[in-house]
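Reproducibility note. Readers wishing to regenerate the assembly model reported in the main text can use the exact inputs given here. Chain order matters: entities are listed in the order in which they were concatenated for prediction.
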Amino acid sequence: MKRTSIYLFIFLVLSSCTRPKTALVIQTDFGLKDGAVNAMKGVAFNIDRELLVYDLTHEIPTFDIWTAGYRLYQAAPFWPAGTVFVSVVDPGVGTNRKSIVMQSASGLFFVTPDDGTITLVSDALGITAVREIDEHLNRRPGSEGSFTFHGRDVYMYTAARLAAGKISFEEVGPLLKGKPVLLDYQKPILTDRAVKGNIPVLDVQYGNIWTNVHDSLFSQLHIQPGEPVNVQILYKDSVVFVGHIPYANTFGDVAEKKPLAYLNSLMNFSVAINMGNFADSFRIGSGKDWSIILKKE
Amino acid sequence: MKRTSIYLFIFLVLSSCTRPKTALVIQTDFGLKDGAVNAMKGVAFNIDRELLVYDLTHEIPTFDIWTAGYRLYQAAPFWPAGTVFVSVVDPGVGTNRKSIVMQSASGLFFVTPDDGTITLVSDALGITAVREIDEHLNRRPGSEGSFTFHGRDVYMYTAARLAAGKISFEEVGPLLKGKPVLLDYQKPILTDRAVKGNIPVLDVQYGNIWTNVHDSLFSQLHIQPGEPVNVQILYKDSVVFVGHIPYANTFGDVAEKKPLAYLNSLMNFSVAINMGNFADSFRIGSGKDWSIILKKE
Amino acid sequence: MKRTSIYLFIFLVLSSCTRPKTALVIQTDFGLKDGAVNAMKGVAFNIDRELLVYDLTHEIPTFDIWTAGYRLYQAAPFWPAGTVFVSVVDPGVGTNRKSIVMQSASGLFFVTPDDGTITLVSDALGITAVREIDEHLNRRPGSEGSFTFHGRDVYMYTAARLAAGKISFEEVGPLLKGKPVLLDYQKPILTDRAVKGNIPVLDVQYGNIWTNVHDSLFSQLHIQPGEPVNVQILYKDSVVFVGHIPYANTFGDVAEKKPLAYLNSLMNFSVAINMGNFADSFRIGSGKDWSIILKKE
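Running the prediction on these inputs yields the following structure tokens for the assembly.
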């Protein structure tokens, strides 16, 4: 008996000791000049000191839900099932917008306002279920009087408890009634020998143009490396750029300061200038109003 | 005998394995462009690989002791007792300013120069004891010839050893003789139907005005949500802004681009423009020379 | 038998539980606005959840190999043997530049393109061996079609597996044939009562001038604290600054807004203005074309 219980004790401690760690990945539009992000991490640390908290970015442009959604889409595929993402870009804080946790088909969790932030990860990863956070049950104790920092008191608190296994996905709250808010954007399409798509984001550090046209669609134009692509870029209905750009495997395939078309690290069609800045040179922006048309010469 | 010693061995290993982790939270005015912050983290890692090092911010304006103190005040309450904070904003490095560790009544430790950095956390959390760092005992071995990077060689080294349990609080050094340096600032007061306070900091990312007037004081003006607050903002003796601003529970209670008064995430009286920037619009700054007067209409 | 196997099981679990953790230190020129750095961390987390990933900086100026090398030089000495550094500043991505892992004599590993990034750590720490990454064996599964993000798919993947002990240094790939690329720069020299050296970098946050003249060389000029140093700063062959600057132990030894010469935290000769910005005041830059000449009066 005694020995059995000692074994049991050892087993239990070892189990907790060797429990696979879960990652909590956070992004905000708070920047890193003030103490808000650190306060959120303190909340998580109070819940479970073993949690591994990773920053995605805290430099989402203020209130820019679209970009918040894009950054989740960009990073999420590289994390294992069970990872919990928290996105606090919340122009609607204090309004009646709902707070949700989306479980993707790939087993990731996204804790955000129900404002469309999950649009791109939903399309890319698939939705298994969306639950509405019950803020009576899932709110940092003592924070009831604070209306303005749901990121810390509701989202981080709920996400950390979910990641730590203190609550199950079901305990987040009931299944969301109706559909989550999803943003409208130009899906990539092939029409009569042309591909049309959207420019969701710029590769900001380098000024490269990223599109939502995946290699699997672009390849239907049968353009080989070394051949030119006929590229048109439009803002709403105005053509901002027209040109023939060589399709290259890599930047080094063209001379410095020359443009190239290539597949970026997500295997999406992109345009850049080798050792230069395409977006600045041709005044290209990104977002739902920017589109691109590709043709074979 | 043999079995007992095996149990003892297992117990000791399990104890070390399951020792609750301590957090080390660091802030500096170094920025993140160079390698100084990373070198500090290497020093901590050399002392204890289990330490969890969290950044507060490294973007304190250069030499701005007041803001350093404010960031500690903003983040510290969210961390558990035992957490060690290191703040390296040190215009007096190499002078005869002392180096201290302050233990708050809430059980947190603050490792900083004795230059007033601890002012706001002292007022908010209470001081249990202040010890002067004995730099002969608590200095990174081999760093004796370096006079200019106490942040790495004294503060981080001492903080990491304290957090790791390699030294006790008493082993930091003797109790500080006399009082620590505390900065002078306008405390919030209620006088004859008006509340006066200080604007310690701006919510820099959004341009919101944060004050040191807590809800518990502001509520004595008996202003209900929806009612206007008569707000005056002064730089020294000059009135910079006067206006009637509605008191709201949350940003969504007013139209876009309209001002509102609200309680921020620390439950302090604040002023903002919904989806706008109050500080830029009215050229409001922060610091000891900025004050605010609030009255009921 | 049974008891023995239980002990063995316990021993194995405890061993894994108490294995000393290895640090993985990363730097890039990606900035932190997008999701690229986080995706790299997800790759590491998938390989080993126990790995401790530390940022050096992600604000290396775009494609600036020299500065990347300098940041490694600045931070690496503070990390213990076994630490793995990854530097992804890679203007040559997709060209035939090689990918290497350098093992320093101090037992650190540096995973980078073979483009000179390792120059300064090689000179400071010594090279034990350089291996060329075999990208057929050491490449993130599923990433074969992506040509442009070696930082994530080759460098981070290889570095994380090396840090986690999933591959040995030998399994990185074969020893590099020939010498690694090393950049040419002005080594510090003593000639006829003058010391000449390079200005590798500015202390960007404060505008201080850092040189590669170590105390051990500078001290041969026999200048005592309080005595002036005759300082000339040149861009190529043009003299940009000439002056007599007092040699001080610390900033507080001179009045505010006055220049001083001092030893920085790496014990290298440096020039600054107390509470001011020397580089801005005298338009001093850094890099291979900037040099400094020091003489005793």
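We highlight two features of this model. The interface with chain B takes residues 7, 10, 14, 17-18, 20-21, 23, 25, 52, 54-59, 70-72, 74-75, 77-80, 83, 201, 203-206, 215, 249-253, 262-265, 267, 275 of chain C (CB under 8 Å). Chain C is about 25% helix and 30% strand.
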